């Protein structure tokens, strides 16, 4: 895995109608969470910041092809803006990927601009953000197969819940195999929507 652009198939962001479908008439668009393929692990991540540079936290969760919960994480990261929080959430998720030995990983978040920066290996002016990006770019080549996609916030609610929980944590928290009660209903809805669409249905929701 020597070439970043070979392992990070960011073209899915362009091809996937879930990511880019728009309507001048504000018609409903698909925003539901999708299951990964058999053998793959999917990470949904999110960051939360109170104000421009207020108290920030991160969170995310890993699920398999059955939508089973594998692992979740949440933690406060001090004061940071939303950009730093999003990057920190992805970085922590990738560290957990390596710790757990997952080799085929689908990364998904709702900060589209940041995903493009990472996929294109662009440099940015903010030194703290660039440190996170550089670390992310070092971890991704360690993963056997890795794809990165954008999803609207409506489909990333479980990760958002973990990020919100991070504000209430006094220290980093990790859940394995058994998710916290706060995300059970969201995960159930994600799995139902994914099953419905995989069976040929199409659940469209209004994106705001």
From TrEMBL:
<dbReference type="InterPro" id="IPR053151">
    <property type="entry name" value="RNase_H-like"/>
</dbReference>
<dbReference type="InterPro" id="IPR036397">
    <property type="entry name" value="RNaseH_sf"/>
</dbReference>
<dbReference type="InterPro" id="IPR002156">
    <property type="entry name" value="RNaseH_domain"/>
</dbReference>
<dbReference type="GO" id="GO:0003676">
    <property type="term" value="F:nucleic acid binding"/>
</dbReference>
<dbReference type="Pfam" id="PF13456">
    <property type="entry name" value="RVT_3"/>
</dbReference>
<feature type="domain" description="RNase H type-1">
    <location>
        <begin position="44"/>
        <end position="165"/>
    </location>
</feature>
<dbReference type="InterPro" id="IPR044730">
    <property type="entry name" value="RNase_H-like_dom_plant"/>
</dbReference>
<dbReference type="GO" id="GO:0004523">
    <property type="term" value="F:RNA-DNA hybrid ribonuclease activity"/>
</dbReference>
<protein>
    <submittedName>
        <fullName>PREDICTED: ribonuclease</fullName>
    </submittedName>
</protein>
<dbReference type="InterPro" id="IPR012337">
    <property type="entry name" value="RNaseH-like_sf"/>
</dbReference>
């Amino acid at each position: 895995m020597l070439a970043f652009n070979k392992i990070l198939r960011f073209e899915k962001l362009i091809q996937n109608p879930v990511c880019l479908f728009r309507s001048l008439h504000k018609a409903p668009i698909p925003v539901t969470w999708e299951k990964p393929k058999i053998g793959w692990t999917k990470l949904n991540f999110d960051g939360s910041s109170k104000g421009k540079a207020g108290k920030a936290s991160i969170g995310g969760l890993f699920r398999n092809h059955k939508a089973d919960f594998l692992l979740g994480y949440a933690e406060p990261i001090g004061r940071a803006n939303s950009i730093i929080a999003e990057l920190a959430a992805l970085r922590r998720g990738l560290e957990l990927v390596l710790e757990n030995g997952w080799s085929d990983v689908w990364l998904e978040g709702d900060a589209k601009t940041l995903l493009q920066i990472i996929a294109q290996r662009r440099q940015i002016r903010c030194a703290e953000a660039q440190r996170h990006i550089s670390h992310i770019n070092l971890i991704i080549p360690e993963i056997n197969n890795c794809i990165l996609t954008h999803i609207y916030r409506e489909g990333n609610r479980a990760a958002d819940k973990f990020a919100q929980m991070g504000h209430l944590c006094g220290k980093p928290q990790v859940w394995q195999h058994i998710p916290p009660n706060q995300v059970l209903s969201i995960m159930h809805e994600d799995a139902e929507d994914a099953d419905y669409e995989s069976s040929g249905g199409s659940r469209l929701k209004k994106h705001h």
